[in-house]
Structure formats: C-alpha cells, structure tokens
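Input/output pair, single chain:
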Amino acid sequence: MMTSSEIRQSFLDFFKSKRHTIVPSSSLLPDAPNLLFTNAGMNQFVPIFLGQRKPDVDKWPGAIVGADTVGTRAADTQKSVRAGGKHNDLEDVGHDTYHHTFFEMLGNWSFGDYFKKEAIEWAWELVVEKWKFPAKRLYATVYKPAAGDPSEFDQEAYDHWARLFSGAGLDPKVHIVYGNKKDNFWMMGDTGPCGPCSEIHVDLTPAGDTKGKLVNKGEARCIEIWNLVFIQFNANPDGTFTPLPARHVDTGMGFERVTSIIQGTKGLKDFDNTKISNYETDIFRPIFDALVKLSGKEYGSTLPPADLSTINPQQSTDVAFRVIADHIRTLSFAIADGIQPSNEGRGYVLRRILRRAVRYGRTLGFHEPFFYKLVDELAQRMGEVFPEIRAKKKHVQEVIRTEEEAFNKTLDRGIELSNEEVARILDGMGSAPASGAADRALAVGPGVLNRPAARYSRRRLPHFERPWGKYMVTFSTRQQRQLTPSERDIVLESILYAHNHRQYHLYAACVMPDHVHLLFEPQIKEQDKDGKPAFWQLGEILSGIK
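Output:
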C-alpha cells in the first residue's frame, strides 16, 4: 500500500515522464487582489490563460526539468486554503471526514499544447493502469448543456471515455454520466476563460455496482477524485461565448481525498471494510500521535451527532483532534508564506482559525500554549515537499505561541464571565455550573449548556412565538463594561455559531463595545410526532448565545 508521500511523488513522476515541467507550489499569499488565499492550483497560471504571459514554466525558479520537458506543460502539488470569501469550509472542519481549510491540489496543465485526448488517456493510465483503481468502479462525467447553458454536448470527451471503458469491457452508457453547467462547465469568473470539464468518480460501495446512480448526489459512497477542465472559450460581458485562440488543460486532483481511498481500502484491495476518511491516513495520523502525547487522550474516529447538544465526551475529543490537526497545517503554511495573524483581511481569518483551534484545545485539557508544539511534527513530515516550512519553523512557532498566549488570557477571562452569567441565569439550580462546563461550551458551541437539567429563566421574553418570525434582540454587557476587540470577536463567533448550525438565519448583527444588536429568524429544529416542523424556541436560542 502506498504512503501519501509515494502517491504524491508517483503523480509528479508520471507527468514528468509525459514531458511536464514540475513547478513548485506558489505561495498561499496570492497575486490576485480579489483572493484572500491561494485556493486552487490554477491561480499561478492565470496570466498564461489570459495571454498576459507566454507559457515558459520550464524557466520558472525552482522548476524541475528533464531532457525533454517543455514550457507548455506543467505539473505540481499546490498548497491551497479555503477559509474565507466564496470558498469557506471553516465551520465544517472537524465535524466530518473530508472538509479542510488547508489541502493539497495535484494538477497537470497544458498551455496551448495537448488537449482532451491526452488529458483523458493519461488520467486513465495513471488511475487504472498505474495505481490499479478497478475500472468497474469508475465513472466519468461529461458536459451536456441544459436549456440556456452555453456551448454544446462535449462529444469529443465522450468519445475518448467511451473508447477507454469499452476497451475495459464496460458499457460506456453506464459509466459515462452527463452533467449540465452546474457540474460540468468551469468558469474562472463571470467573464474570461472557461470550458467544459470531465470528472472521475469512484464507487466505494462494497459491490461497486451502483451504475452511476450516486454520481454528483452528495454521497460519501461515490467520491469525485479528479476534475479535468478543458479551457476553450472566452465568456464575454454580453453573455456570449467565443472560442479562444489557444486551448488549455487545467486539472485538479484532491491529494488528501485520493490518499484516503487508496489507504482506506488497503491499497484498493478491500472495499468490504472501507474506512474512507481523510483523517485516517498517514497525512494526519502523525499529528494525531503528537496530540496524544501532549494531551494524554486517544483519538476514537467517531463523528458528532447532528444535534450537538447530545455530543458525548469521545465525540467531542475526536472533533477537537480533527480541528486542531487541520488548523495547524493552515496556520503553519500561511505564516511561512508571510501571512501574519491580525485584525484585518486574511490576517483576521488566520487569527479566527488559530483561536478556533485553541478553543477546541480546551476539550483536550489544554490551558497553556500547546498549538505551536505541533509545528515540529509538520515540518518534519512535509519539509521535503515544502522546504519553506522547515526554513521558517522557528518563526512560525513563535508567532503561533505569542497568539496563543494572548488569546488564552482573553479566553480565561471570558470563561470566568461565562460561569458567572450561567450561574445567574440557571433558574433554581442553586449552584454554579459544573467544572469545565464553560470550556465545553466554547469548544463545542452554544447549546451544550442547554441540557434538560438546566431551567433557563424566560423573563422578559415575548409572550408569543410564530413560525418564520423575525426578532430583533439586544444584549448588553453587565454594568455597561467595555469589551476589548478580542472579546468582541468572541461575541461575534458565538452569534455566528448558531447561524452556521442552522438554529437561526442571521440577517444582521452589530457588535458594539458594550452591547450587540441581532436581527434573526428561528429555523426548523426537527419534526414533531405528527410530522410537523418544530422550530428552535426563542428561549433556546437566547440562552445558547448567553
């Protein structure tokens, strides 16, 4: 069974054998002013796609060239962060097996060189012939426009896939699935280079015979691993599409995702006992092992329930492991690339990620700086591929440790105030909350303290509630105390938690130095015994925020 390092190197070696120049990953600090972070492998090649730069990747600093590599072909593994703006997976991280804020994107590129035939044939050669994915478990998607969609059916891509599936004794009509503009037409933006794309999906069910019915259905049992984009049009401001003078190939393979499939099936040999999780790979396990040594707690591979108020201690621990392991990668690589935590822009996103990891660290019993200690493990494991993480290791550790120390002080004061407030609003309990309750609330989120044994005061609440009602609520600090900027950040994150977990839809929030205004609409919590929707009660929401 291949290790993650072997999978990455196998990809790069394969495309080097196809005359591709291996280029280094670009920085997470993007050149494009409209991006918070580099979020895809194609970012550094945009000037070539736009015709602003000649395809000269064989002349780029750090490029690995062979005797016959050319500047019109490239392959790489690109560091990517999606934690802000249009692509934001932050709040999902830790709660499932596949969301990340930092990930690697393996890609191969053609700049006016080869096109659909070679891209599809080489994808098949690598996945089926070299890596030995069972062909019967693979499905390819091709573009078929719906009414109003641009261009026409991608017959060329279909024919190439049909030839390959037929050659493997498989029915192309079963293994080729159509997708419209939403799934199979890639656009850089509202205008600019674009074109149809073709994805490879893997059927992970025990029998592997779902006949394409799970493709693009949001099913964990059928996962997309590779997207081949064929850039051949320009989207014009008037909504029309014209052919480009040069056609390009832009592909992206999720490194963590393909590693989880190969390792989770014991080298693609056991689909009956699959354990497909990005976190169950040697990409994350070394970080987990370091966390075990630091915390004394074990990772149990459990996932949290949909209702986080019923989460058990092991599930809380496992969420914390995944959050911390993901976030140390994001912080370390971003800081190594020159992005500093701050109160503005991308720096503020980093600060939020770091603070989220520190809060979850409380679940594992950490009250002193611990997060920075994981940088050693990361630098040791990934320094060969990304040497900047080793070169900047001490700087990364110092920045993270300083941020941790400052936030721990704020967090401790916030927990103290939280305990005082919970003790005040727990009506009839007669005692302060149990030890660690506030820490668990900060780690898992509002709602943890709202358990059946706690009877919250409903004084000063409206005497009626109605479905889809809109409410304007104001909270004030005790004795009009002025909150620091860091404390106001905690207030905002508490408000956003309930919104992100669909307790309510937040229309507006204004966090002032000593009070906060909210405008929100409670959402459906569950169905009652008659099958009718039951909404989150106003008291539940307000108590959770408190």
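The longest helix spans residues 393-425. The CA atoms of residues 248 and 424 lie 64 Å apart.
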